[in-house]
Design a protein that fits this description.
The protein is globular and about 60 Å long. Helices cover 29% and strands 15% of the residues. The longest helix is centred in the middle third of the chain and has 27 residues. Helix 7 packs antiparallel against helix 8 and helix 8 runs parallel beside helix 10. It contains eleven helices and 17 strands.
Length: 432
């Protein structure tokens, strides 16, 4: 069990269940932490990945009239463009050696050299470095989610586990992905696996009632909004399970909670992704974890998008076309990021929002799937409040220091993790 330092009053408890609370001004959530003694919420980090790159003609941003104008791929983020930092021209030198999906993805968040010949060796990724250094104050050091199963095959002398994982707990250990929404939800709130399908909220209702008596009116409203959002996710998971559309444990007393056959993927990919997005938001909102990674699909992905009327070709093959359908799929992925950002921005933490207290990184292992171009990577940052100057477009294409790991060194500094080197870099990006 993780010996985290959350105070007793920050957790609602029931039989076999503990449920962390959102930031409440009248409850000391983070006992012992200096930031809280000064009334500040913690800084979170999120890494988001979409495989196979993007439409090469429509991934762009430019500053115009004091505002950030975004290309068609990023258009779902235009309403919050003032909270977006677009970064152009970064790359991982080690990713250029294999020039294939697996060799460009397995070190995306570490910049480490990859072992070939079917062997597995990469480097510890930035999300896990942060979780290992800063994640011990929460119930879960990090939450790593995915919407497509890992592929254990070998492609052109590289293991496809590289193309299936962006988060690495050690150079030889890809962080296990949770692709089942029900199990990801249980991990946030349950202390151990348990039988039956009793609601998480029903288990902690008595503790929640007692808590309401001792908090401010504003906090009571915030608590009620939070509990309602948890209930909504619970209901959607149960409904999806009854329809048979999601893999994972069936919430039923009549049958054992067993996973569906491994060869299936969620039939309703839009619902699957939205559930994972909502679970991620709950993880931040409750301070169950401060470090999340969401892999929307694999590089060399086999997902199809019947929800968009595009089910004639898998994601990987579609990425080679730079067609209008490929653009629609790109926008669908960015819509998930926009959905998360907007939800985080709607949750107040004192005079700020959860998005102000979170830095979101969105990237892919190549700029364009049609050319496998990894000489510059698509990268954006969102949120960060006072920690990040957004509403800008930075171009490193012609600069000597344009390493992706230089960005990671700059980001880790913001969390108090100061390394002399990371991956292939010993420099920071001064503008970030």
């Amino acid at each position: 069990m993780n010996n985290h330092h959350v105070s007793r009053r920050s957790v609602l408890k029931g039989l076999g269940v503990s449920m962390a609370l959102p930031w409440l001004e009248s409850v000391p959530l983070y006992a012992g932490e200096s930031s809280v003694r000064h009334g500040k919420a913690p800084l979170r980090f999120g890494a988001f990945f979409a495989g196979n790159g993007f439409h090469k003609s429509h991934w762009w941003a430019k500053e115009k009239g004091g505002k950030l104008e975004l290309g068609k791929v990023l258009s779902p983020l235009q309403p919050i463009s003032d909270q977006v930092l677009f970064i152009k021209g970064l790359y991982n030198e080690q990713a250029l050696k294999g020039n294939i999906h697996s060799s460009q993805t397995g070190n995306l968040l570490s910049g480490a050299p990859l072992a070939s010949g079917g062997e597995i060796k990469s480097g510890t990724s930035i999300d896990q470095i942060l979780a290992q250094k800063c994640g011990q104050d929460t119930k879960i050091p990090s939450l790593v989610l995915g919407c497509e199963q890992a592929n254990p095959a070998v492609h052109k002398n590289y293991s496809m586990l590289y193309s299936s994982h962006i988060s690495w707990s050690s150079p030889t250990t890809p962080t296990p992905l949770e692709i089942h929404p029900a199990l990801a939800f249980d991990r946030l709130f349950k202390n151990a696996a348990s039988k039956g399908d009793k609601s998480i909220l029903d288990s902690v209702l008595s503790d929640a009632t007692d808590l309401r008596k001792g908090i401010s009116k504003t906090d009571r409203q915030k608590l009620d909004e939070y509990l309602n959002s948890v209930r909504e996710v619970e209901k959607r998971i149960a409904h999806a399970g009854k329809r048979g559309e999601l893999q994972g444990w069936r919430p039923s007393l009549e049958k054992p909670n067993i996973p569906r056959p491994a060869d299936g993927i969620p039939q309703d990919i839009a619902e699957h992704m939205k559930l994972m997005c909502d679970i991620l938001v709950l993880a931040y909102q409750t301070d169950t974890t401060r470090f999340c990674t969401l892999k929307l699909n694999n590089d060399h992905s086999s997902l199809r998008f019947s929800n968009l009327g595009i089910d004639y070709m898998i994601h990987h093959l579609l990425s080679h076309q730079d067609s209008n359908d490929w653009l629609k799929v790109n926008q669908f992925f960015v819509e998930q990021l926009a959905y998360i950002a907007n939800k985080l921005d709607s949750i107040k933490e004192g005079d700020k929002t959860v998005l102000d207290n979170t830095i979101l990184l969105f990237c892919s292992s190549m700029l364009s799937g049609s050319t496998h171009n990894a000489k510059e990577l698509p990268v954006i940052l969102i949120g960060g409040g006072d920690h990040l100057k957004t509403g800008r477009a930075l171009n490193y294409r012609e600069k000597s220091n344009r390493k992706m790991c230089s960005l990671f060194l700059s980001l880790m500094d913001k969390y108090g993790v100061h390394l002399d080197e990371f991956g292939d870099s010993t420099e920071r990006l001064a503008e970030v």
